[in-house]
Amino acid sequence: MFSKLTAEFRFFQTMPHSMRVLLITNMLYALVLPVVEIFMAAYIMRFFADTSYVAIFQVAMYTGIIITSLANGFLLKSFKVAHLYSFGILLSGIAMVGMMFVENIALPGLIVAGTLIGAASGFFWTNRYLMALNSTADENRNYFFGLESFFFTIANIGVPVIIGVLLASIDGVQFLGITFDIYKGYRIVTLMVFLITLLATYSLSRGRFENPVQKDFLYFRFDKLWNKQILLAALKGLVQGFLVTAPAMLIMKYVGKEGSLGLIQGISGGLTAILIYLLGRFAKPKHRILIFGFGITLFLVGTIVNGIELSMFGVMVFVLCKVFFQPLHDLAYYPIMMKVIDVVSKRENRNKYAYILNHEFGLYAGRVTGLGLFIFLAFYVSESFALRYSLIIVALLQMISIPLAKNIMKESYLEEK
Asked: Which DSSP string corresponds to 369-400?
């Protein structure tokens, strides 16, 4: 066993230096993401006792991503990509600290906090895409995203368990004359997250990442192949908003409190992490559509079970399917997207960041549409109806992604022949 782990580490060492630095940085930031994705939604649910507030927070967050993705294009003309990426990491920690330490957050404050956290995510994700594009090649992108997904999956298991135990055990404890409650527990978690963002920033400083040579990045007309990719991004965005909020909303309503989040995520997370690493390590580019299609089909199964049986059983089946689906989907999706950017940036002789920015608009359109559907159903029908059927609708629409992604991959590789 030890020899196999040593062999895997040696294989990791054969990767380009900048790619290794980016992976280590993302490994550290993986410890932060579950707090944003799961416990921020749980915190809002606890504070407002209304799932629609979680959806409003997400819309504000996604709007913040768009604002800073656009601003980031201008800033790349004057600042290094690694510095902007580091700023995004730090800003996410600062925004969470600010939100958690406000005693009585109202709806306007929630929107401001969501926009700031989204702004941090905009700097993080767009610069991450750009650095990943420049430090990887098509041949090693399965490995890059497989290992990265392995980190994120392990973090999604471990972090919720640790935080769930902390929040459950700290409530009512007295120490040095201070009575701790669950809100103080959230604040302790947020401070720990901020310290991790500092470590991630230091890690990134050890790499060498190049800014785009061409400065223009804002375009409104693109190659037909890229337009297909944007449709694929919108379909991804459609389900992405639900994946950030739906598990926390469903678990808090039908299963239990924060401690249950960690337990349910941990049931299937370990197997998923190993599977994703092995797929990233050994799967070839030609296997991406198979991985992509399997993940989407599994997600559809989970939403149907949840819709039929909206109870503890149905929610647990959905969350288990979601835990498998998300890394499988990302493992295939991001290498496909980056291959398309490689192809169309050469065709059109444009800055690669132009496509990263436009990709964020595609994701945003899908996210807002998906969350808009949830808010509409929650307000005008019922909250339980929204949690039961909106996920099925989104999952059925995702099935369109499979033939679309297959067509995109075929055209991308025809370019080389």
From this structure: HHHHHHHHHHHHT-HHHIIIIIHHHHHHHHTT
- Domain contains 249: yes
The residue among 402, 291, 414 whose CA lies nearest residue 347 is 414
User: For 351, phi and psi rounded to 5 degrees?
Assistant: -60, 130
Instruction: Tell me the DSSP string of 126-176.
Output: HHHHHHHHHH--HHHHHHHHHHHHHHHHHHHHHHHHHHHHHHHHHTT-EET
Q: How many domains does the chain have?
A: 1
Q: Per residue in 169-208, pLDDT tens?
A: 776 667 666 666 666 777 777 778 778 878 888 888 787 8
In a domain, 3, yes or no: no
In the DSSP assignment, the letter for residue 37 is I
List the domain range (segments joined by +) for residue 387. Answer: 15-204+221-414
CB atoms within 10 A of CB 403: 11
The pTM of the whole model exceeds 0.85: no
Q: Is residue 400 part of a domain?
A: yes
- Longest Cα–Cα distance in the chain: 72
Structural contact between residues 248 and 54, judged by C-beta atoms closer than 8 angstroms:
yes
Helix (H) or strand (E) holding 178: strand 178-179
Quick check: is 210 in a domain?
no
- CATH number of the domain where residue 151 is located: 1.20.1250.20
Give tens-digit pLDDT for 45-79.
666 766 677 777 878 888 888 999 999 989 988 88
